[in-house]
Amino acid sequence: MSFQIQCGVVILSLLYFHQSKSEDSCDFFHGRWVRDSSYPLYNSTACPFIQEEFSCQKNGRPDESYLHYSWQPNGCNLPRFNGVELLRRLKGKSIMFVGDSLSRNQWQSLLCMLYTAVPGTKYNETRSEDVSTFTLTEFGIKVMLDRNVFLVDVVREPKGRILKLDSIEGGELWKGIDMLVFNTWHWWNRRGPTQPWDYIETRGKLYKDMDRTAAFEKALVTWGGWVDANIDPAKTKVFFQGISPSHYNGSLWGEPRAKSCAGQKEPLLGSTYPGGLPPALTVLKRVLSTIKKPTELLDVTNLSLLRKDGHPSIYGFSGEAGMDCSHWCLPGVPDTWNQILYSLIL
After folding, report:
1. Is there a catalytic annotation at residue 313?
2. How many CA atoms lie within 13 A of 162 on its CB side?
3. Nearest Cα to 141, choosing from 185, 91, 104?
4. Is residue 198 among the annotated active site residues?
5. Is 271 exposed, middle or buried (0-12, 13-18, 19+ CB in 10 A)?
6. Count of C-beta atoms within a 10 Å radius of residue 231
7. Is the separation of the CB atoms in 59 and 315 below 8 Å?
8. Active-site hit among 101, 109, 260, 326
9. Is the pLDDT of residue 83 over 60?
10. Is position 327 annotated as part of the catalytic site?
11. pLDDT digits (tens, 9 = 90+) for 187-226
12. Catalytic pick from 100, 324, 326, 335?
C-alpha cells in the first residue's frame, strides 16, 4: 500500500512538472494561423460601432476567407474569448486605449467583442476633445480611447508646433484608469503635409528634424518615466500594443510583383515572416526592459506580419482612391490582439 501511495505521489509530481513545463513553454505571440470555421468571433452586421475605414464587408470586399482563421500559438491553445466572463471581471472598471488609429482599430474591436456577447445591452457614447468613452451602463464598464499619436506632447508656440520629446502632460488623462493599453509608431515617419509638427524639442534644444527612430526612443523613455512615476501596479495594469505592421512591399513576403496588399486573400503559412521584424520593435523592447513598474508587451508584430490578407486595401475609408495596407478589417486581426489581452488578464 505504501509503495502504491509513493508511486502515486511520484506520478502526480511528474504530471505537475509536465504541466508546469507545458505552461512555461506557451508563447501566445508566436505560432501560425489555421483555418477555423468557428471564426470570426462576431458578425460585422451585429456591431454598429465599426467605423467606415475598418468595415470591409460593408464597403464591398467580396472575399470572406480572411475571416475564418484563428491564431494557434506555439505550445498551447489560446483560450476562446468569453465576452460575458470578461464583462464580469471588468464590472465597475475602466479601460483606456492610448495612441493612434491602430489603437482605435483595437478599441473598436473590443467594443464589438463585448457588445455582441450581450446583444442589446444598454450603452452610452460620449466624446470630449480627443477622448472617446463607451460606457456599458449595465456593467459600469468604461472602454475609452485617447487619441494621442506620439504619447508625448505637441504644443503650439509662436515659433510653430513643437513635438516635445521630454514632456508628457497629456498623461494627466491616464491617471486613475484600471487598465491602460498604449501604442505609438504609426506617425513617427510622417513627412510633408501630414507631419503634425514643425520642430522637435529635446533637452531644451529645438531641431528642424532628427532621426525618427531616435526621436521615437526618446519619447518612449519619457513615457516609461511617466509609468514609473505614476502607476500603482495594485490598481492599474499597463500594456503596450506593440508595433502593428503594414504590407506595401510584396518582396518582403515572397511576392516581388505585389506593390500592396490588394487582392491578398490568405495569410502566410508558417510562423516566420520572410522580411523580418521592424527595427522599431527592437527599440520598443529595449525601452520596456528599463521600466521598473510591471508593463506587459502585447507583442502582436509577428502574428500580424503573417496577415497580409487582413487589411482593408481598397475596401476602407478612401475606397478605390486609396490603398490602406496599414489598418485592419473588422472583424479581423485586432480581435486576436484582444483575445490575447483577454488571456493575459484572466
Report:
1. no
2. 17
3. 91
4. no
5. middle
6. 21
7. yes
8. 101
9. yes
10. yes
11. 999 999 999 999 999 999 999 999 999 999 999 999 999 9
12. 324
